[in-house]
Design a protein that fits this description.
154 residues; Rossmann fold; 3 strands
């Protein structure tokens, strides 16, 4: 990651594994998301990058125990790891963001300390450059085919 961030003032970390048809839970989704995030942050710190912006996900702060949904969701809110809705992707986004904040918060206050910003979108779409279908392209196809009951037909 050093070559990627060397000479940069700002870094935007957008990538995260999205499950395809066959998922080896920790190996394919969780571990790459967490380690990739930590590697980019460590390189940014070494090269004195001013700020790193990480695209996390709304799922990192949207799964709560029944009856414990906060009135206001802010940076103190985290999804419940024991939630029955905790998919590999949700877990990867939650653990990667937690790891990022833990990394930055444990840097010494003296000297350079990279700034961290996390964005938590609910859905992101853009040009698709991979082959085959994955979760994101499947959802878009379902929208296009009218397979969601929540979308009006007219």
């Amino acid at each position: 990651m050093d070559k990627v961030v060397e000479g940069s003032h700002f870094v935007i970390h957008l990538a995260s594994p999205v499950p395809g048809p066959v998922v080896r839970y920790e190996e394919d989704i969780v571990n790459p998301a967490v380690s990739g995030t930590l590697h980019i942050l460590a390189a940014a710190q070494r090269h004195q990058v001013k700020r790193v912006v990480i695209t996390s996900s709304l799922c990192a702060c949207s799964e709560f125990k029944p009856g414990q949904t906060p009135a206001i969701i802010d940076e103190s809110c985290w999804s419940d790891m024991q939630s029955t809705n905790m998919s590999a992707y949700t877990k990867s986004k939650l653990l990667a963001e937690e790891a990022a904040w833990n990394y930055v918060n444990t840097l010494p206050d003296s000297g350079h300390k990279v700034e961290l910003v996390t964005l938590l979108p609910g859905f992101v779409i853009g040009e698709y450059i991979a082959a085959g279908m994955n979760t994101s392209t499947s959802v878009i196809k379902q929208f296009m085919d009218g397979q969601f009951d929540v979308i009006p037909k007219k």
